[in-house]
Design goal:
This protein is α+β, with helices and mostly antiparallel strands. It has 6 helices and 10 strands; from the N terminus they run ααββββαβαβββαββα. It has an 8-stranded mixed β-sheet, sandwiched between helices. A two-stranded antiparallel sheet has the order 6-7.
């Protein structure tokens, strides 16, 4: 055992009360349930992706490198939001590389942030890239846009705005470029959040999706709605059907 691991083990004993609860809605339990469900959907294959939930002063984060379908509450990292310090660190596990991106969402009022490696999300970013190149437009400035699809009603209008998008509204999801290391996406993600303040999701080209919501329930339903829309968009393109009317 390394010195760092030994220190973490000593520091973390007595903090298990943060993740111990019979309540299935407790963040430590809820994250495990979500990870299992997302695994069956193909969103977190090969330990990819991640889930985080803010509960008052604490942030619960799934670790790096653990198979999502086997996730246990004891695997959870717990961070104090105000100080960005870990209150609980499983000594043999690594913190999620998604953590700084999750924090960017929490800094904008999110209650939960989800990262998926959905194939449909990846394919949509490639189709948008292909369209931009064929039209002579800048790839880095191109967003995924679609309208007149019923499932768009599952996406909120924007922070501080009442209600959800409507059937005749246009859904816009910004796309940022991938990087060699996950944490290096943070600046681009924050820039997209600033440029598109109404968005609750950002696509990462050739990588996946970050989606957040005011609560874990809302983040989950928005992730499901977006994945449905992305899959539909890929099939529409195959049938030569336009995304924008």
């Amino acid at each position: 055992e390394s010195q760092e691991q030994a220190q973490g083990s000593t520091a973390d004993c007595g903090m298990d009360h943060l993740i111990a609860s019979p309540n299935p809605e407790h963040p430590a339990n809820h994250i495990c349930t979500l990870c299992r469900n997302f695994y069956t959907l193909g969103w977190v294959t090969g330990t990819g992706g991640g889930v985080s939930i803010r509960d008052g002063a604490h942030i619960f984060i799934a670790p790096s490198g653990v198979q999502k379908e086997l996730m246990q509450p004891a695997n959870m990292f717990v961070m104090e939001y105000a100080t960005r310090t870990y209150l609980r660190k499983p000594p043999v596990l690594k913190p999620s590389a998604c953590t700084p991106l999750f924090l960017a969402a929490f800094d904008r009022g999110a209650g939960s942030c989800i990262h998926t490696h959905s194939q449909w999300a990846v394919l949509v970013t490639l189709l948008v890239e292909k369209d931009a190149r064929s039209q002579g437009r800048e790839v880095f400035d191109a967003c995924f846009e679609i309208e007149q699809i019923e499932q768009i009603k599952g996406i909120p209008r924007g922070r501080g705005k009442d209600g959800m998008l409507g059937f005749f509204d246009r859904l816009t999801v910004p796309i940022i470029e991938n990087t060699a290391h996950e944490e290096d996406l943070t600046q681009s993600l924050e820039a997209a959040m600033e440029k598109y303040p109404d968005t609750y999701a950002v696509l990462v080209r050739r990588h996946g999706l970050y989606v957040w919501g005011d609560s874990v329930h809302k983040a989950k339903t928005q992730a499901e709605s977006l994945d449905y829309i992305f899959r539909l968009a890929v099939e529409m393109r195959r049938l030569d059907l336009p995304w924008i009317q």
